[in-house]
Design goal:
- The protein is mainly α and 166 residues long.
- The chain contains 5 helices and 3 strands.
- The protein has one domain (11-165): Protein Binding, DinI Protein, Chain A, CATH 3.30.910.20.
- Helix 3 runs antiparallel to helix 4 and helix 4 crosses helix 5 (155-165).
- The radius of gyration is 29 Å and the shape is rod-shaped.
Amino acid sequence: MKKIIIMLMVFAPLSLFAQKFGHVDSQAIMQGMPEFIQARGEVEAQTKKYEDELQAMQQELQRKSEEYDKSSSTMNETKRQETEAELQKMYQKIQQTFQDNQQALAKMQQDKLQPITNKLLNAIKNVGSAGGYVYIMDTAAGIPYISQTLSKDITTEVKAELNKLK
């Protein structure tokens, strides 16, 4: 019985070293994916469109505000209140448009990136399963140290798997 226990104690640490660990830089892989580049371009184009619309609205508000400042002294009280209410309404519309645009961009980004992220995760899982890895860590997650002798960089294998998934 003692021999079996001693044998287990000797071979147990060796079995730990037989496990395979891998690491991958998912961010670098994703930024090289054509579908990510296309999605990023579409989001940036929509962002530019929203910025241009907001800038036009702000310029219109600025113009009307300057007109009001120049002519407010000659306006009667009713006209002054109407103009101030109109300016306030324009300002609120700009704020609401900004918030709506932010939400639309977040949703667009989520909708465009989710399938790309899923594809990348599936490729990592396929490489992990095929290679018999116990863990695959993502260096993009901010892991401060990964042993290059105990963990294999599988970034190229994941890229190859992504090409197969097309």
